[in-house]
Amino acid sequence: MGLFDKRKKNMEPEEEPAKEIQQSDAPVQEPEEEKSNEPGFFKRLVSGLTKTRKQLSESLNQIFHGHSELDDEFYDELEEVLIMADLGLETTDRILSDLKRRVKEYKIKEVDPCRELLSNIIRDQMMVEDSAYDFEEQKTVMLIIGVNGVGKTTSIGKLAAQYKKRGKKVLIAAGDTFRAAAIDQLKTWAERAGVEIIAQQEGSDPAAVVYDAVQAAKARNVDILLCDTAGRLHNKKNLMDELAKMRRIIEKEYPEAHCETLIVLDGSTGQNALEQARQFSEVTDLNGIILTKLDGTAKGGIATAIQAELDVPVKYIGVGETIEDLQRFDPTHYVEALFADFEVRSEVEMLIEEEKETWQ
């Protein structure tokens, strides 16, 4: 905690003052086709999950039409389908255990009522507490982490633009100083979003950028400070040290602000995304996940696996290139999009009506 007990001029290595790029306070103006609302985003989510849904629903419908008894063969085939949809072995085991428990509890003897139970169990695995987004309504410093190529820079830009539209005062810190393109891309997004950015030259100390950005955020009464971080350092110790250094700066220099750490993951990489999240969770505490590139992938089930296995909520999902194509994660919409072609209505709804009310 004593990293910045001395004045900033004594920081090692000594860095040039961060260059501040002023941006207009005018609202973000997007082309008409980029404007969106929740129903429009749900349609894009349904479209984006087409490959996953087709693969999953066709297989599930075959299983439910091909079995009349809840025997071992039924559960074995169901297990295989869920694993193939990238829900993962651990998550699949958990889902099947819950399904068997509810089948026993409700005294279900036939296969068909399990349709509704299955979709509800998966939705239950992904519920996000309302308090998960409290940070959006208070002074917050957001550390955005993740490997190169997952959509980290664009996610920062989209979040900045959306917060700006909601009347928030937003500042961006270009903390990924190891890759020149990251700084340039962030400057472009800052200009597009109409927010200010604190940046230094390539190779600068990322912690120095964060330090200057925190000072600017306090001085200007910024609501949300979005900090980019290096996408890849040459070993895990470097990554751990760098992130820890940034957090110490934030905690010491801006203790009244909430620090939110979000990891950006590429949904199209399936189990690789889960492994990335697991590795980052070993070196820093994660508050949430931004899952990008879900459109066009057959691995959309990975959202369930990541949240269930790491106990870290998916907070935002992206299904396209425009600013509005990154939205808060809604587990109900996600499951509805995932199972849109799967026949889930059955008489079991009467048995679990009270339970369903808690999910709405």
Structural class: alpha/beta
Q: Unreliable stretches, pLDDT < 50, 5 or more residues? A: 1-17, 21-37, 345-360
Order of helices and strands: EHHHHHEHEHEHEHEHEHEEHHH
Globally, the shape reads elongated
Helix fraction by DSSP (H/I, runs of at least 4): 40-55%
Topology, pairings included?
Layout: E1 19-21, H1 38-48, H2 50-66, H3 72-84, H4 89-105, H5 114-125, E2 140-145, H6 152-165, E3 170-173, H7 180-193, E4 196-199, H8 206-219, E5 224-228, H9 236-253, E6 258-266, H10 271-283, E7 288-292, H11 302-310, E8 314-318, E9 326-328, H12 331-338, H13 348-351, H14 353-357
Helix pairs in contact: 1-12, 2-3, 3-4, 4-5, 5-12, 6-7, 8-9, 10-11
Describe the structure concisely for a colleague.
The protein is α/β, with parallel strands linked by helices and 360 residues long. It has 14 helices and nine strands.
